[in-house]
Amino acid sequence: MLVEIVLFFFVMVAGTAGEVCLARAMRTVGEVKDFRPGSLAMVAFRALCVKWTWFGLGLMTLAFFSLLGVLTIENVSFVVPVTALSYAVGTLAGSLFLHEKVTPTRWAGVLLVCLGVTLVLLGKR
Description:
Oligomer: single chain
Largest sheet: none
Helix content: over 70%
Distance between the termini: 13 Å
Radius of gyration: 17 Å
Strand content: under 5%
């Protein structure tokens, strides 16, 4: 049981932290306006030169392998709904670390996701 909790923690927190790092990196790189292959390659090269990209990729790799680990222990019909808590973590992280404005309606949606995960957890018993 403790292993599952640790793995779920890494899936949600490391995954969300990785996404926040990549968002910060891409804000440094700038908006993609030209979608020709050469221009996209230049954006990718610029992104690879930003340290936040590498932090994000490392954290998302940790989250991916944690997801693989938890899938060896639990059914996918349980794992996928529980990992939906990462939406709540992501909304909170976006608000706190990227200073994104989160509307009350969006917070209500996050609350609904959390309630749904609670129902899934209660159904496990």
